[in-house]
Specification:
single chain, 3-stranded antiparallel beta sheet, 51% helix
Length: 708
């Protein structure tokens, strides 16, 4: 590489240095930017707001946009536009003077003429009008011919015939027409049908045409049974014993003692008819009920045609079967194309029609306009790139769109839940697999299934970056508003717990202590209740099994008096507790004016570890694992610090100039807890004074005053 390198500017965003794109010259030199300095290496080609531009960029149609495809778009823009500075206008409009490519200038002039516009600027709306007008022309370059494309009524009727039997495709105006490929397919199918018909002429059966289908159906049901019958006849002749037939008659007689259904398994073990030693099948004889109707129908249809007598030999049957098998194979080989919808006369007429070549000429005439259609299409692609390419770069080369206005392409909407509005919501296609990777982000994540009454469904993940998650749980309902303003029902399906804020971390030890006490109290109450119920159950059972007799009733023994040692032990315990309380109070009283700092120190001692751990994790919150789990290839970190995280999650707040009525008619009556605490404090101090626990404290106070 020769020459002076481009002077890039970078700024720190999300924990990484990201390139600044402020001019068209910056975009033109993107090929010189080291791929390691791009914010992303690849992104999914799906977005609710940028479908058109992503489809243009995804040239290999693999569902991903990569750096080479971005650079290819830059080259296309450099070849089409005089200056790339116009990309920052982000509008789908161009003047003729901004176009470098003469072909696109011609396309713009042609579009303005089609749209009856007199100015020298082309907009996407004007171009769409021009394309719509161009598509109404009989020949519009899409290679599809309509019946209206021909001024000859017979040719137009031929086109309609081909369309009616399935040889059609939608043109640019969503009307049915035919193409070169469809015309060739019709001709090939017509020739294949004619060959098939000629093969069938050599297989004509000596039975009336109207009886052919019924005879073939009866043959299909009967052929295996007839073959079995002749094999049984051969076995009977080989045995050379009349007893073998008597044994078969005995088997048939035993079957008469059972109830026989139409498709009974016992009937399937019996032959079509009673085998004859002469090896013939009498068509008027009695048949197995399972095949009786098929046999009678079949032989009645072919008897005259094949000049059959009362009996059919094996040789005659093999000849008949050969004819029918060949005919069945021919019928099964019938081409399953639209040609079958035409009658014989119509097929013959189309095979000899000169209009097919006329249609081919019309298609060639339409294709002659393809260059104009492609010019208009290329101009439309250029206008879409001019409108959206800068947005793509702010979500790919850097992440200005996300860090600047909190509207990254990956954001799909807003989730309202638990009095919060969460801006950072991302569509998720496989929540289970996504969570396995996204949990490394250090972000509190809420996975939700979303649905609409129209039947649309999906999944999202929302990041909770401020507030608290105390009332969030799996199964909680919320409201999701997508980027198009449509509302969805949202149900929480999974929660990945992570620190949310330092404030929440400060209160977490106390909340944990309260929950632990509540759980222990609930367990103790449950155990006590279970014990009481068991005791009551045992007492009731004793009353039922062993009624108390009056004669056996004895006076209950006197309750045992409290032992003196127990009283002494209780006194020692209370004294120890009092001494501990006294020492703690002494320490705080000795602090003097530093007492508030002492209280703060105690609080920090309890909450400090949680706050420090939360602060360390919050500093490392990284969005890139969340995006990588959804198909992005983020090149570095996308840090969500405390300030930015607070901006992504909004808590409920009353609007300005609001007033509150604090009188709740259903609020529980307040108890005088202040009075209760005051009485309790007086009792504690009085008890401590009577027991002498306050003497050290009073002594310290007196010594402090004497020292002054």
């Amino acid at each position: 590489m020769t020459g002076e390198s481009h002077g890039w500017k970078f700024r720190r965003l999300g924990g990484t240095d990201q390139v600044v794109l402020k001019s068209g010259d910056d975009i033109a030199h993107l090929s010189e930017l080291d791929p390691k300095l791009w914010a992303a290496l690849a992104m999914p080609a799906r977005s609710h707001d940028h479908e058109e531009v992503l489809a243009l960029l995804d040239t290999d149609r693999d569902g991903m946009i990569r750096i080479p495809e971005i650079l290819a778009a830059v080259d296309r823009l450099k070849a089409s536009l005089i200056s790339l500075d116009c990309l920052f206008e982000e509008t789908p409009a161009l003047t003729l003077d901004q176009l470098r490519d003469g072909r696109l200038q011609d396309a713009a002039s042609f579009a303005l003429k089609l749209a009856n516009a007199s100015d020298r600027s082309i907009t996407l709306g004007t171009l769409d009008t021009a394309i719509a007008n161009f598509n109404t022309h009989p020949f519009n370059g899409d290679g599809i011919i309509l019946p209206e494309s021909s001024q000859d009524p017979d040719t137009a009727e031929t086109i309609r015939t081909l369309i009616s039997i399935g040889y059609s495709i939608k043109d640019s105006t969503s009307r049915d027409g035919i193409t070169h490929e469809l015309l060739d397919s019709f001709i090939a199918d017509l020739e294949a049908w004619n060959r098939w018909e000629k093969e069938g002429e050599a297989l004509r059966l000596p039975i009336p045409q109207q009886d052919r289908d019924a005879a073939i159906a009866a043959f299909s049901q009967l052929s295996a049974a007839v073959d079995d019958y002749f094999r049984r006849c051969a076995l009977a002749r080989m045995a050379q014993s009349p007893d073998i037939l008597r044994n078969l008659e005995t088997q048939m007689a035993s079957a008469l003692s059972n109830r026989l259904d139409q498709d009974d398994a016992l009937l399937r073990t019996l032959p079509l008819a009673l085998p004859r030693l002469d090896g013939t099948l009498h068509v008027d004889a009695a048949f197995n009920p399972l095949f009786e109707s098929s046999a009678q129908q079949f032989f009645s249809l072919i008897r005259e045609a094949y000049q059959l007598g009362h009996a059919v030999t094996k040789a005659q049957w093999e000849s008949i079967a050969s004819d029918f098998i060949a005919l069945k194979c021919w019928i099964e080989a019938k081409p399953s194309t639209g040609i079958s919808k035409l009658d014989s006369a119509k097929r013959q007429g189309l095979a000899q029609s000169p209009h097919l070549e006329t249609i081919r000429g019309l298609i060639e005439q339409d294709l002659a306009e393809r260059d104009k259609a492609e010019m208009l299409s290329d101009l439309r692609a250029l206008l879409i790139l001019k409108r959206d390419f800068a947005t793509i770069l702010r979500n790919f080369a850097n992440m200005d769109e996300f860090y600047g206005n909190r509207r990254g392409m990956f954001q799909s909407g807003r989730l309202f839940i638990d009095g919060k509005e969460l801006e950072l919501c991302i569509d998720v296609h496989n929540p289970a697999a996504h969570a396995a990777t996204a949990m490394m982000s250090g972000i509190f994540l809420i996975y939700c299934d979303i649905s609409r009454t129209s039947g649309e469904k999906g999944s999202i993940v929302a990041a909770l970056t401020a507030g608290s998650a105390e009332h969030l749980y799996v199964g909680r309902n919320g409201l999701f508003i997508d980027n198009k303003g449509r509302d969805w029902n949202a149900v929480v399906t999974k929660i990945v717990t992570q620190p949310i804020s330092i404030r929440e971390a400060f209160f977490s030890p106390y909340k944990w202590l309260v929950r632990t006490i509540e759980d222990l109290a609930a367990k103790r109450a449950s155990a006590a209740e279970s014990a009481r119920l068991a005791e009551l159950k045992g007492s009731a059972q004793q009353l039922v099994e062993k009624p108390t007799k009056a004669a056996e009733t004895a006076a209950a023994p006197l309750a045992k008096k409290i032992d003196v040692g127990t009283v002494a032990a209780i006194g020692v315990a209370l004294g120890s507790i009092g001494a501990m309380i006294t020492s703690i109070l002494s320490i705080f009283i000795n602090l003097g004016p530093w007492l508030p700092l002492g209280i703060v120190g105690i609080l920090l001692l309890i909450s400090g570890p949680s706050m420090i751990l939360a602060a360390m994790k919050l500093r490392k919150r990284d969005l890139s694992p969340v995006l990588n789990a959804e198909g992005w290839a983020v090149n570095g970190k996308l840090i969500l610090n405390l300030v930015f995280g607070t901006a992504l999650s909004h808590l409920a707040a009353l609007p300005p100039n609001s007033s509150r009525l604090l009188i709740d008619p259903y609020a529980p009556k307040r108890k005088p807890w202040g009075l209760y605490l005051l009485v309790l404090l007086v009792l504690v101090l009085l008890t401590a004074w009577l027991l002498g626990w306050l003497e050290p404290v009073l002594g310290l106070l007196k010594s402090g005053q004497s020292g002054r």
